[in-house]
Amino acid sequence: MTKDNRFEGLMGVVGKKKNAQTSKILDIQISEAKIDDSLSDISTSKHLNSQTSKKAKSANPDYTRTTVYLPKKTHKKLKAIALDEEREMSSIVEELIETWLSSRK
Fold it and tell me: What is the pLDDT of residues 28-82, one digit of tens each?
């Protein structure tokens, strides 16, 4: 081998290592970008689903806002049960009032 060939051979090896490292870095960056896109898609999907599947009661013309005064202990118990059952307090109160109203017939 001549000097030029040895130098070219060494540069070829260094170039291959550099290209492999660059390729790994690009693969990682592409993977991270795909993960970021996936997370963004999930977040957008959840946001859109919550908007389309459930309209806020305050924006729903079938509902009206009402103030009810409850003793603090009763409110605390209601809130704890609603949280435990993953329900809204207003839906529990609505159910109870509907039951009471139907019993009055």
Answer: 777 777 777 777 666 665 555 555 556 788 899 999 999 999 999 999 999 999 9
Residue pointed to by tokens 């081998």: 1
Q: Which of 64, 89, 71, 92 is nearest to 79 (CA)?
A: 89
In angstroms, rounded to a whole number, what is the distance separating the alpha carbons of residues 84 and 1?
79
CB contact at 8 A, 60 and 94: no
pTM attached to this predicted model: 0.48
| Residue pair 25/31 in contact by the 8 Å Cβ criterion | no
Give the residue ranges of DSSP H helices in 1-105.
3-53, 72-84, 89-103
Query: b/e per residue, 9-30, with b = 16+ CB within 10 A?
Result: eeeeeeeeeeeeeeeeeeeeee
